[in-house]
Amino acid sequence: MSAKVALVTGSGRQRVGNTIARSLAGWGFDVALHYHRSAESAAHTVAELRAMGVSSEAFGADVSDPQQVDAMFEAVTGRFGRLDVLVTTASVWQSIPLEQVTAEDVLRHFRVDALGTFLCSRRAGLIMASQPEGGVIVTFSDWAVRRPYLDHVAYFMAKGCVATMTWSLAVELSHRNPRVRVNCIQPGPVLFPEEASEEERQAMVDSTLVKFGNCPESVSLAVKFFIDNPFVTGVCLPVDGGRSIYAAEATNRKRPI
């Protein structure tokens, strides 16, 4: 029996999506990596996965462009023959003071974070609905959509749509195939920004109840939970070390914590 196939959007760069892709490979999945501008990094990951004996390929696309999304999924199914898991980590995140936010800033975040998630999830979901085994979609929002910090209103507006999208798609796709499930992860400080100072990193750690962060593998484990548990769909799961319920002093800092 051939391996199951997973596609992870935004997995070209060495960020959370890339960690998830590597974890899926370790769990026996064939892995399709998506990139937009990180072709070289994606190719390097593909080479590493193939060296592990995993069937892997990288696919470039702008997830906000319906034609490019359709072409990517045609290429993925043409290469692998099926699709069992989609994880949508492709995102833009930019710090912009409220007074400087333009209409284009808002639209840019919506095009990638909201529309891009929808286009990929719908296409993947309809492919999965045609398979007897169904499939699993894992979208990505943010823990702070309910407790937003400063200077990211465009980002939070777009990410806030993802929860409603997840619930809607879970309903829509289950009516086409009950074995298609859709869930959402809302990560906290699971990967520190490279430019973060030691003080900022410590503040992110202090903002959690578990008193650590910078742990992208924790997100991989959440993805695995959604894949493995057939009785869970339409769920938005914070993976934030308790940050979303902790009234820490740093609540309104400008950097995500």
Question: How would you portray this structure in words?
Answer:
This protein has 257 residues and is of the alpha/beta class. It is built from 7 helices and 7 strands; from the N terminus they run E-H-E-H-E-H-E-H-E-H-E-H-H-E. It has helices spanning 16-26, 39-51, 66-80, 103-129, 153-174, 198-206, 217-228, and strands spanning 5-9, 30-35, 56-60, 85-88, 135-140, 180-187, 236-239. The chain has a 7-stranded parallel sheet with strand order 3-2-1-4-5-6-7, sandwiched between helices. Helix 3 (66-80) packs parallel to helix 4 (103-129) and helix 4 runs parallel beside helix 5 (153-174). The termini are far apart.
Q: In terms of topology, how is this protein built?
A:
Blueprint: E1 5-9, H1 16-26, E2 30-35, H2 39-51, E3 56-60, H3 66-80, E4 85-88, H4 103-129, E5 135-140, H5 153-174, E6 180-187, H6 198-206, H7 217-228, E7 236-239
Parallel strand pairs: 1-2, 1-4, 2-3, 4-5, 5-6, 6-7
Using only C-alpha atoms, the radius of gyration works out to: 18 Å
| Main pleated sheet | 7 strands, parallel
Beta-strand portion reads: 5-15%
> Looking at the structure, what is the overall shape?
globular
Distance between the termini: 44 Å
The class by helix and strand makeup works out as: alpha/beta
Give, in order, the helices and strands.
EHEHEHEHEHEHHE
The total count of strands amounts to: 7
CATH class: Alpha Beta
Helix content: 40-55%
Number of domains: 1
Q: What do we call the CATH homologous superfamily?
A: NAD(P)-binding Rossmann-like Domain
Pick out the low-confidence regions.
Answer: 250-257
Number of helices: 7
CATH architecture: 3-Layer(aba) Sandwich
Q: If strands are numbered along the chain, what order do they take across the biggest sheet?
A: 3-2-1-4-5-6-7
